[in-house]
Amino acid sequence: MPPVAVSLSDQKNALREDLARRLEAVSPAQAARAAEACAERFLALPAVASARRLLVCLSFGTEISTVPAIARLQAADRQLYVPRADPRDGQIHVHPYPCELVELGFGLRQPPRGAPEVPSSEIDSTLDAALVLGLGFDEGGYRLGHGRGYFDRFLAGRRLPAIGFAYELQVVPRLPREPHDVPMAALVTEASTRHIRSRGV
Questions:
Q1: Is the Cβ–Cβ distance between 45 and 121 less than 8 Å?
Q2: Residue 4 has what pLDDT?
Q3: Residue ranges in the chain modelled with pLDDT below 70
Q4: Is 94 within a domain?
Q5: Is 201 contained in some domain?
Q6: Residue 167 falls inside a structural domain
Q7: pTM score above 0.70
Q8: pLDDT of the residue at 17
Q9: What is the pLDDT of residue 120?
C-alpha cells in the first residue's frame, strides 16, 4: 500500500504535542536559569540595546519566563507594550504596559478589550522591536504557535524586528511552513543567539 499522506495541519499538531511534552519536562531550577540566560542574550542584541519601545509577550504556563527580561527592560527605563489577541477581529492589539490585565481560561494574561492601546496605523512608528514567544522555532527563524495565526498576521509587512525567545529544546531543524508564515529576525535561547535576518539584530 502507498504511504498515507500526512497533512500539514497533522504535522503541526504532532509537533505541538511533542514540544508540549518537552516543556513539561523542564524543572523549576532549569526554568529559572534558562530565563535569566535568555534575558541576558536578548538584551545584548543590538536591536534591543538600541530600542526604546518594545512589545513583550507575557509568559504563562510552561513557556520560558519573560519576567527577568521585562524587569531588566523596565530597570533600563524602556517603554514597554504587551499584545492582546482579539478573537473578534483575529488581530493583535498593542497596549502600553504596565496596565490592567485579565486572565483567560487557559492562563494567558492580557489587557481587557477597551484598555488604552496604540492605533494600528501608529504601530510601525511606535515599536522598535518585539519579544515573541511560541511553542517552537526552527533554524530558519520560523515559529510554531497555537494555530490561530495572530502573530503571523501582526508581523506581515512590518519592518519591526521580531525576536523569538525560547528554550533551546524548543528549536527544531525545520518546521512545516505555509506561505503566510513570517520568520523571526533573530532567535535567542539560554544556549545560543541565532541571527536570522539582517535587520540590525
A1: no
A2: 52
A3: 1-6, 197-201
A4: yes
A5: no
A6: yes
A7: yes
A8: 95
A9: 94
pLDDT score for 201: 57
Closest Cα to residue 174, out of 163, 166, 183, 165?
A: 183
| Overall domain count for the chain | 1
Kindly state the cell numbers that stand for 79.
Answer: 517603554
Whole-angstrom Cα distance, residue 53 to residue 36? 21
Which residues, in sequence order, are CB contacts of 64 under 8 Å at separation 6+?
31, 34, 35, 38, 133, 165, 166, 167, 170, 190
Domain of residue 124 covers: 8-195
Per DSSP, helices labelled H in the chain are 8-24, 28-44, 46-49, 67-75, 123-126, 150-155
Sheet holding 136-138, edge to edge: 143-144, 136-138, 171-172
Which of 120, 114, 115 minimizes the C-alpha distance to 91? 120
Cell numbers 535576518 label which residue?
Answer: 197
Coil, strand, or helix at residue 122?
A: helix
Q: What CATH number does residue 20 fall under? A: 3.40.50.10420
Q: Would you say residue 146 lies in a domain?
A: yes
* pLDDT one-digit tens code per residue, 4-24: 566 888 888 889 999 999 999
Q: Which residues contact 99 (CB under 8 A, 6 or more apart)?
A: 82, 111, 115, 116
Determine the pLDDT at residue 200. 45
